[in-house]
Amino acid sequence: MMFGRGESKQSCSRGLSQRLKEDMISSLPDPLISQILSHLPTKEAVCTSVLSTRWKSLWLWVPELDLDFYQFPDFNAFVSFGHRVFDSNRVSFIRKVKLDVEDGVNADESYNLKSWIDSAVNRKIQHLDVRSPEVDYFYQMPISLYICETLVFLKIQWVSLPDAELFFSLPCLKTMHLIKVQYPNEAALETLVSSCPVLEELEISLARNDAELLRVQSRSLKSLTFIRVSPFQFQSDSVSGVVVDAPLLRFLSIYDYESDSFHVNNLESNIAKLEIVVNFGLEPFDEASVSARRRRCRIRSFLPGILRVRDMKIDAGTFKVIHEYTKLEPRPQFRCMSRLFVTICVSDLKCLPTFLESCPNLKSLVLAIDDYGEMSCEEMDQISGYSSVPECFLQSLEFVDFVTPISGYAAEMKLVKYFLENSAVLKTLTLHVNHDGSIDYEKLLKIPRGSSTCQVVLI
């Protein structure tokens, strides 16, 4: 009996302690509780309304909402919950909304999405992210979204943009991601971007080839990411070009194997960083395609816009296009470039010194190379027989990083030797080592060095 009585006292003590803890949380101010609830998934935050009368309406003050269709048993449950969250009687503002919509929503059902976004706009939304799968149907956003005075961040996917003749005004928008957006006409994108006077970051990912010329014009834009990858077979006559007019642009990333031309105009300062995967519609690629006058003009019109880049990342295809272009046209000079990350095919290694001649002030080179093991004896001889030493080797190149793990192939070692022997001011050469390889480390470390201060770092 005494044991039972002690156990009862302990149980009561635990219950009292638990109630005190609950009371302590419940006694917090409403804004603080709503801030705590904002760190929970929206569905869980709403569930706290059943805890007590005190908690019944606290979730209505949560400023951040995240609705994911896949957390609900079916579409009707998702819609019912969404209506509750965006109920017109809600009086609090909504700072941030994420919506992940189901695959099968159609034109008749999309009014739910429009009404929810309308409600968020009316409650001074600042951050909107509408995520959706790739389907045949393009969502329609309410017109109120495009005249929202408080919106700072916008990410929309698989959406049909309204006609450009409508009035757009997004005075506070700084970041905009347009993922697989359908543009009704050539002016729609240009009009939307120009309606954002403080826009700093823009990402455009196109769903398919467009016949119209796409223009991006902004006096405030600092970062632009442009992606165009078509699921359809390439048709050179049906692919549009792109024109970028953004004087303050500092970061530009292009992943585009479809556009037949790409122009970067009126830059007022150097591009701090450029990532480029583009072939100017030359697909499939061959030397004859570059030699055509019309296609050389596409490349020639693009290069002046990027010559003042400081940090460039370039893929193997673009490297090859530019190299083939320089066989027929004057070699471009990237005099401001201090860092280069280049991916190169084994068969194009012979072109590397010529390309580096275009970077006379290069300080850091990161090199990614396809499988050395596929290199022929003739290609190995071309490496060992490099007849030129780029200017940057003699006066500026301080860091070289072979990011592709080396295994000890003869071609690899000849390339390493070329850098070590000819770089006069090199400080560090970094080699990532494949543990399955057979590298002669003693022989590697005995390679003569053109720079007395050079260190070889093995990772």
Describe the model:
With 459 residues, this protein is α/β, with parallel strands linked by helices. Among the domains are: 29-62; 338-459, no CATH class. 29% of the residues lie in helices and 21% in strands. The strands form two sheets. A 15-stranded parallel beta sheet has the order 1-2-3-4-5-6-8-10-12-13-14-15-16-17-18. It has a three-stranded parallel beta sheet with strand order 7-9-11. The protein is elongated.
Task: Write a compact overview of the structure shown.
It is built from 14 helices and 18 strands.
Query: What shape does the CA trace take?
Result: elongated
Largest sheet: 15 strands, parallel
Radius of gyration: 29 Å
Report the portion of residues in β strands: 15-25%
Strand order of the largest sheet: 1-2-3-4-5-6-8-10-12-13-14-15-16-17-18
Secondary structural class:
alpha/beta
How would you state the average pLDDT, rounded? 81
Distance between the termini: 70 Å
Number of helices: 14
Q: Runs with pLDDT <50, length 5+?
A: 233-238
* Proportion of residues in helical segments: 25-40%
Organism: Thlaspi arvense
Protein name: F-box domain-containing protein
Domain F-box: 22-58
Pfam family, one: LRR_At5g56370
Q: Any key phrases for this structure?
A:
single chain, 459 residues, alpha/beta, three-stranded parallel sheet
Question: How do the strands and helices of this protein lay out in sequence?
Answer:
Blueprint: H1 2-26, H2 30-37, H3 42-47, E1 64-68, H4 75-85, E2 96-100, H5 111-122, E3 127-131, E4 153-157, E5 175-179, H6 187-194, E6 201-206, E7 214-217, E8 223-228, E9 242-245, E10 251-256, E11 262-265, E12 273-278, H7 287-291, H8 293-302, E13 311-314, H9 316-326, E14 339-344, H10 352-356, E15 364-369, H11 377-384, H12 391-395, E16 399-406, H13 410-422, E17 428-433, H14 441-445, E18 455-458
Parallel strand pairs: 1-2, 2-3, 3-4, 4-5, 5-6, 6-8, 7-9, 8-10, 9-11, 10-12, 12-13, 13-14, 14-15, 15-16, 16-17, 17-18
